[in-house]
Amino acid sequence: MSEPRRIIVGISGASGVAYGIEAMRLIRELRTHELHLVISPAGARTLAEETDMRLSELKAMADVVHRFGDIGAPISSGSFRVEGMLIAPCSARTLGGIAVSLGENLLVRAADVCLKERRKLVLLFRETPLHLGHIELMASVTRYGAIVMPPVPSFYTRPKSIEEIVTQTAARALDVLGLDTAVLKRWPVDEHAPTPPT
What is the Cα–Cα distance from 11 to 157, expressed in whole angstroms? Predict the structure, then answer.
C-alpha cells in the first residue's frame, strides 16, 4: 500500500490566522493530501482574538494534529515523507527560528526538515513595516530554499470582500506548493478585458 500524499500547515502567532484556516479548508476540499497541523500557543491566542472559531474546530479540520512541543513527532524526521509545508501566518519569531535552525519547537523543526530535505516551504510572513533584521532573516531563509510570500492582496482580481482576498492569497500559496485549487484566479482574469489607456 502506497503512502498518502502529505502536506503540513503551520500556524504561528502573527496576525492573519484566517490565511491558515482558509488554506486548510482548500486542502480539505482537494481530497488529495493528508493534512498535518501544528499550531503554536500564540497561534491559538490569535485564533481566539481574530475569529469566532474554537481551537477544537480548527484541529478537526486536520487529519493529524501535532503538539507544538513534540519535537519527536513524525514530521520532525526527514524519513517521514511530506510534499511540503505552509506556515500561514508566519511570525517574526518563527521566521527567526527557521533562519538559525532553532529546532526548539515542532513548528520550526518541521520547517527545518523541509529545508534540509529540499522540500517546498512557503512562509506567509506577516509583518509590516519591516526593519533590516526582518529583511535579513527573509534573505537568509530564501538562500536556504524557503519561499517567503507576504500575504499581499491581488487587486487585479477586483476583490469585493476580505474573504475573497484571503481565499485568493491562500489559494496562491497552495499553488506555489504545487496544489492546484479551482478557486485560484489566474492572470489574465478576463482575456476580453479592455486594453487600459496609454
Answer: 26
Phi, psi of 92 (to 5 degrees): -65, -35
DSSP 74: G
Query: Could you please report the per-residue DSSP string of 4-26?
Result: PPEEEEEE-SSS-HHHHHHHHHH
Whole-model pTM: value is 0.94
First to last CA, the chain: 59
189 — pLDDT class (breaks 50, 70, 90): low
Residue 147 has φ and ψ, to the nearest 5°, of -115, 115
The answer to whether residue 194 is domain-embedded is: no
Does residue 94 form part of some domain? yes
Does residue 191 fall inside a structural domain? no
Q: Where are the alpha helices (DSSP H) in 41-181?
A: 41-50, 55-60, 92-99, 106-116, 132-144, 162-177
* CATH number of the structural domain spanning residue 156: 3.40.50.1950
Q: Would residue 85 count as lying in a domain?
A: yes
